[in-house]
Specification:
The structure is a homodimer. Chain A contains six helices and no strands. By secondary structure, chain A is mainly α.
Amino acid sequence: MPQHIVRGFDVDLLCLATKIGEMGKLDRKQITDAVHALSAHDSALAEQVIRADDAVDALQRELEEKAVSTIARRQPMAVDLREIVGALRIANDLERVGDLAVNIARSVTELHGDSYSRGMISEIDHMATLVVEQLDRVLMAYAERDVAKALEVWRRDIEVDVLNNSLFRELLTYMMEDPRNITACTQLLFCAKNLERAGDHATNIAESVVYIVEGRAIPEERPKRDITNLSNEFQLAG
Amino acid sequence: MPQHIVRGFDVDLLCLATKIGEMGKLDRKQITDAVHALSAHDSALAEQVIRADDAVDALQRELEEKAVSTIARRQPMAVDLREIVGALRIANDLERVGDLAVNIARSVTELHGDSYSRGMISEIDHMATLVVEQLDRVLMAYAERDVAKALEVWRRDIEVDVLNNSLFRELLTYMMEDPRNITACTQLLFCAKNLERAGDHATNIAESVVYIVEGRAIPEERPKRDITNLSNEFQLAG
């Protein structure tokens, strides 16, 4: 936060930052629980994730109201305004991460009848760990207004994409080997896609941090390696 | 819009509404083009959709800036504030619809090597038509601040879900019949999912219209029939 005498405005900003911290903590728990429910076939835990989404949404609405009332009362300019707009954007991304965790939980509640290999689940677990790390780091970057840390998160997203791509290939192989795998693998494809998109939200948050601190967009193109849309890279047998 | 003497504030609101109209028109074109590119195997058109997404994003940023400067300058209360917050939420949904069109276009650029049946494509076409209709209607409801029309869109989303479910079942069947269909069908599954989510954004916009006019959330639970997560409803042979 910029160095100046504490004003009412700073108290408002602190309130926004606290809500973002709470949302981030909830998202972390939601993703971890959803993926744990997936690997443990625990539909009760999955139901809990689905219900807990209301809390994420409520926090976003509270933050939105606080942001709007702060703009109306304080009429901030330049860097102060960027703080508020940035907080709104970050809350928006965090709300979407919450939705993605719910999508994964929904797959779990319906997958319990189907079997899937430990190998596939362990890769999804690995992806989830990486995504949660990315979220932790970018929220740290936000708390410390640390552009270098934000850019590191932004660049590391490629690791999530690489994992998603290898999982995508593997799941297609399983489906081709045995049609009985198709239903379960389709759900796991969706789960992986949801985690990949959660990773993208971490990079959006990184962009918001840079915007808040420097008032500019990140100039480079983000390295992107999502080949789950590149089916022709994956040569099919037959 | 409420009946009162034209104020500077009304001019600001009109500017927000115009930008929302432009975003809606662009989204309509993006979805239509993306699905047309899919059915015509037209990767040049798909590339065009991918490039045009910047225009949607730029409109959202402009709307955001306009909204924030309006709040700061006019310090609106109650219904006027809801107008602005509602516009911000709607723009956010429209930006996401643009992203979903890009996801579909990405599938196209990579699918040209693979074949898929006319039947599957015609169902995706049908779904896209329905989603575009939903978007048109909800933007009309916004322009007219018509709660009844907004609620109609909100309730009709179930038709999109029903189409998505039948397509999901059909695609799984194709994959099971012939493993050579798996790569293409997986892409089409993602396309259908993207359209279904675009439909969900139309219902979110309907909720924002109700919020703007009545200052409340829609009390009922929305009827939801997404069984693409209900794999156990779909009994696998074998």
